[in-house]
Amino acid sequence: MTKIVKSNDLNDAAKCLQNGGTVVFPTETVYGLGADALNEEAIEKIYKAKGRPSDNPLIIHIADINDIYKITKNISDDAKKIMEKFWPGPITMIFEKADIVPNKVTAGLNTVAVRFPSNETAQKLIKLSTRYVAAPSANISGSPSPTSLKYVCDDMVGRVDFIIDGGNCDVGIESTILDVSGDEFKILRPGAVTYEDILSVTDKIKDDYKDVKDVKTPKCPGMKYTHYSPNADVFVVMGEKEKCQRFILDKISNKTQKIGVLAYKDSKYDGADYVIYAGCDMKSYAACLYDSLREFDDNGIDVIYAQFENSNGIGVAVKNRIFKSAGYKIIEV
Ligand code: AMP
Ligand code: MG
Question: Which residue's CA is the nearest one to ligand 1's atom 1?
Fold first, then answer.
């Protein structure tokens, strides 16, 4: 039985973490599915609830900066600068792991991913539990990460002990992941803390994140990437607003299936079966992306055209997620 509780009622959920149970909690990025990071049986429950392959490591969440020294080793001065500037906040860092961290959390790697979330409910829960809390996103493996209570419940009721209602997540996409375990720092996953932000603190980072599409064409056109995907078929339509609009409107006028459009920058799509407006900048696009993909599914949409335009900053992260949601089906207009 899954108990759903309000964010001002955290005591039982914290006890549940202490006793090796699973708790879904809000963060500023997406909802996390948490368990005691030092308890191997508890960690197994996370993988089981998500249906996640156990070779995919988890992020450990802390709510006290001093805890970082207990679960990692050899933190460089530049990594400390990044922690000071962006924690608590939406960036995860990869460090050499301390011996107490079980291999189950890191999937056998000698590094560990750590994040200090800024969300107050997340901080309160972690502090009350007096544990380090391992937590991937609270979705069934492969689906878009949940950023609202409704979609957490769709995936997780019956699979976890507690769900904490924290309303909607502000950022809407997962944290930036920055590997600071080597001499050169590397962005492994783009997020709300951008390349430019990191570069303002350290010169140990050389490049922004590059998507597969930007590096090389995927080997075969039908190549299936099932990350962040709704049931509907997603196509990214990328380019100037007017060109995107023309292409998508043409698809709508010739449609044989139910078409949904994720519209950007006030584009109009009369005749589509379902339209969601992602706003006029990439910050609002990020905030609504995952919920929108699930909302199209709720409304029986077969094909989603996501209007997109390249930009830097958080646009790099939105592009990364939307490309994966679409299984790299990208139409450049
Ligand atoms: P999520 O499951 O959505 O919270 O994402 C967690 C991601 O963090 C995983 O997909 C991993 O790719 C990444 N990660 C966690 N630990 C490590 C690590 N030690 N080294 C590299 N990546 C990591
Ligand atoms: Mg995830």
Answer: 136
110 Cβ below 6 A of ligand 1? no
Ligand 1 atom with the smallest distance to the CA of 136 is 4
Tell me how far apart the alpha carbons of residues 9 and 6 are, in angstroms, rounded to a whole number: 5
Are the beta carbons of 115 and 91 closer than 8 angstroms?
Answer: yes
Euclidean distance between CA atoms 189 and 319, whole angstroms: 11
Residue owning tokens 């301390």: 98
Distance, in Å, from the CA atom of 333 to the CA atom of 243, rounded to the nearest integer, reads 6
pLDDT beneath 50, residues of the chain = 217-225
How far apart are the C-alpha atoms of 176 and 170, rounded to whole Å? Answer: 15
Q: What does residue 277 show for φ and ψ, rounded to 5 degrees? A: -95, 120
CA 158 to chain centroid, in Å, comes to 22
Q: In the 8-state DSSP scheme, what is residue 159?
A: T
Nearest ligand (C-alpha, residue 103): 1
For 23-72, how does the pLDDT look when each residue is reduced to its tens digit (9 = 90+)? 999 999 999 999 999 999 999 999 999 998 888 899 999 999 999 999 99
Q: Is the C-beta atom of 133 inside 6 A of ligand 1? A: no
Plot region of 215 (φ>0 → left; ψ -120 to 50 → alpha; else → beta): alpha
Handedness of CA 217, 221, 227, 231 (dihedral sign): positive
What's the CA dihedral at 239, 243, 245, 250 to 10 degrees?
-120
Residue bearing the CA closest to ligand 1, atom 2: 136
Residue bearing tokens 């990214």: 236
**Alpha carbon distance 111, 106 (integer Å):** 7
Give the Å distances, CA to CA, from 293 to 28, 109, 111, 264, 327.
Answer: 19, 33, 33, 14, 14
| 23 bridge partner residues | 34, 162
Ligand nearest to the CA of 90: 1
What's the chain's Rg over C-alpha atoms? 20
Q: Is the CB of 59 under 6 A from ligand 1?
A: yes
